[in-house]
Design goal:
single chain; OB fold (Dihydrolipoamide Acetyltransferase, E2P); 9-stranded mixed beta sheet; 7-stranded antiparallel beta sheet; binds adenosine monophosphate
Length: 551
Amino acid sequence: MLQFARAGAAVGATTATLEKTRILGAYFGTLSEDDLRRAAVYMSGRAFAPSQRRTLGLGWSTLSKVVSSISSRDEDELGRIFRKHSDLGDWAGEALDGGTRSEPVTLEEVEATLEAIRTARGAAKAKPLEALLMRLDPEAARFFVKIISGELRIGLSEGLVEAAIAEAFSVPITQVKRVHLITGDIGETAVRCKRGEFEASTIALFQPVRFMLASPVETPDEAFTRMGAETVWTEEKYDGVRCQLHRQASRVQLFSRDLKETTAAFPELVEAAPGIGHDVLFDGEVLAHRDGRVLRFFELQRRLGRKQVDAELRREVPVVLVIFDVLWLDGRMLLDEPLTTRRKLLEGLGLEPPFLLARLEEATGPQHLDRIFAETRERGNEGLMVKDPLSPYTPGRRGLAWLKLKRPLATLDVVVTAVEWGHGKRRGVLSDYTFAVKDTRTGKLVNVGKAYTGLTDAEIAEYTKRFLEMTVSDLGHTRMVRPEVVLEVAFDSIQHSGRHASGYALRFPRIVRIRDDKPVDEIDTLERVAELYDRYFGEKSEVPLSEVAET
Ligand code: AMP
């Protein structure tokens, strides 16, 4: 573990990507296959390979209790050290310095500890954590805690880990990426590259394949220019959850966007899949629907992450799978086939509910696309996917073959009521803003969301000073501020939410600009939020299923 930490620290000490790759490649070159598999995953900032679909379930309070007990430092001192770093790993490294036995610990032992933490329940998670931290050198502890916190923060992207694998085993980077796209597992990729096993790198049923992603565009013109195509295909952008369905005879498995297995959450799909009559790997979107209508995302949320779905919930929130791609059909891999071929194969399957096909329309120019876009918005959908009909399916890639066209609905003018210290690059500045609208009935401000994107570093630095002066109460990580800074925020949608006093939450809010020109009296109201919700996102705006999808 100490060698891992030293390699990680050396990578973090340089900003030159070539140098990072060289250091990491040299380290990977020294490892056995088993350690290579582990180190590649940990260097990507993960405790487990995504294909293992595991999570640690370890909270901050357990970690802080363990660090406090080993280091014999009190809460105040630990808090002071944390504020200095704003990084859990760096905090633990300093806090534990002098308190541990600094013994050699192997990556195998690290793996066993992570597994023991994962399988322990509640407070029992502290025991394996404490046993390992006690033994580690503080530098190794620093990196161990970075791994469990899910981020190394040493300027390593997954792309750089791939480059280091290429460098370590003299394999072209394109080859490494291809293996990674298919395995979806950086540890497995590293081992296959070390062994020179490339032929076996094809997709297999019941091994989740990374999803193809879309790049955002703002206008129909931009969609055409970026795609560089004469005609494009458009599909509705369904507001559900991404789902991959694998089916071979009576065996069926479902995977979510982060490659976790979600089979148990959607029994109606599992029960109907044998009826498809072919071995398939589908890509699509799960939607909640009832009485022929698509329900809003927040209804679908009740079905997510379930290990068991009872009959009542199935009745209240039934689901369908709207399919837009097929990657495997009866033993044939279709990744490299053009979308036109894949779609034709899909249409030939004669699918029946709960399996539907995404509604497809061809657009021959920007104006045509604009009209289709307007129609889809009229139907209450959030946007349109624009796809190059000749494109292959590129797993894991956010390229230009799939674009998403969604214009922000409207913006809201809101006022900042609380601010938080940022993490990582944003440490030492107040970068996360909670904001409110006005409830005209009570005259009070009510929070509707929290935004942390959209401002430049210079703006954040300037406003940090202002917020420090405007603080009315300092809660440590969070500061309540005088409501004086007005922001214009864009967002993707509005949900009902118990998190904020307003009863609503904006989804994916981004700061468009700071409205110095606007007095707080003139910010938007709760009524306006409710109106937008009803118009676009509430029960009343539900879209008839027949209009969004066809079989
Ligand atoms: P975003 O989450 O904004 O990056 O948009 C991409 C997501 O839109 C995908 O991951 C899918 O879950 C979803 N989506 C909805 N409809 C489609 C469609 N017809 N084709 C591809 N993705 C879709």
